[in-house]
Structure formats: structure tokens, C-alpha cells
Amino acid sequence: MLGMVKWERELDQDVRELDGADTLAFGGVGFAGQILPETEAYRRVEQALREHPEAARKKVDRLLRKGSPAGKAYAATLLESVDPGAGRAAWERLRDDDREFTTFSGCVMGRTTLREYAAERLAGGRT
Fold first, then answer.
1. Pick from 116, 121, 113, 107: which is nearest to 27 by CA?
2. Contact at 8 Å (CB) between 80 and 90?
3. Interval 87-123: pLDDT, tens
4. pTM, whole model, 2 decimals?
5. Residue 100 CA to chain centroid, in angstroms?
């Protein structure tokens, strides 16, 4: 970590947050519209992909390979936003994963598997 610039340390921290995530939420959750730490981390990694594409892409690729189920879904979504072909390939790979994670859409909490979520993304659903 010594010698790393601030954005690199922050990117590492955000990717670690996504790596351990059990919940996928892209906006506020619950009645109060609380922004979860993993949602904030997702937004910062999304920004890092624009500002430091090469370094951030390596971290996202690693997250896709080694992350939690929700972390992998975040990674595939991030890839999809910067490289639709790579995003589609990521969702194709995740279609065989039956591990579960929690989803939030506003006040509605649910559970899904990577298989189900990936199939919906490939069919053009869920954003």
C-alpha cells in the first residue's frame, strides 16, 4: 500500500467492499432510501473506470473471478457499462452459478441466484 496514490487506495478499498457484498442495490433502499456502503462503493468504482480505466478494469476483472455472488453481479454490471461485449460475456459465465444473494429495488428486498439474475440481464431485464 505504501507508494500508492490516494485514488488507488480508495479503489482497492471499494473493490474489497464489493468483494464481500451480500446485497445488490443500485439506489436507495428501504423507506428512508438509505444508500448502502456497497452501493456507494459501486458508484466510486464506476467513476474510477472512467478516470483510471486500465487500473480499475483489472480490479473489476478480478472481482468478477473471485468476488462474492453479489460482488460478481456488481462486476458484470460495471463491465457492461464500459464494454457491452465484455459485460455480456461476464453474464454468460455467471449463468451457471447457483449461489444466492440479496437484491433491493427501493423498498422491496428479495433473494436471487446469479443464474437467475444473469439470465434476466441477458434477456434485457433488470438494471
1. 107
2. yes
3. 999 999 999 999 999 999 888 899 999 999 999 999 9
4. 0.93
5. 14
